[in-house]
Amino acid sequence: MQPHARRALEDWHAAWTAQQDAALVACAAAFPGLGRMDPPTGCCDPRLKVERPGEATGFVCFDDHGRATVDFKGIPQSALGRTLEVLFGCDWFDEGPDGIAAAPPGTYSWDDNSTYAEFEIQVEPDATASICMSSVDDAVALLDELQTHLAGLGGASGEP
Question: What pLDDT is recorded for position 160?
Fold first, then answer.
């Protein structure tokens, strides 16, 4: 490879790595306890994981387009419901007029045809829920809002 082409490629790689690192920092700031997984992650790199029993367990990863997937389980239904209500309003997921917080057990989903984002919420009989948001640009907003509502329940640590 020609030296000037090699330097350009190295600069591009450095800029891409810096962008991915900034995404990791933003997500970890929004949701304390997220920690970077070492490759191989079993998914796209970079990837963060969290283990906060009673609050959330799962991961956040980033695709090559800078979009994130948030896949969390074991979230108190009330905290996730309030989070989604603040971000999206009620009735986006066909769970009824009172939102996910009051939804009966089941799977609720929504696909955003304009951004190609996919959302799936699973409400469990034990009043916990899971969320899988794929290809979203606003993962930090979700993580920050979820952190706020978990802290309101008295469980989440708040600031690191």
Answer: 44
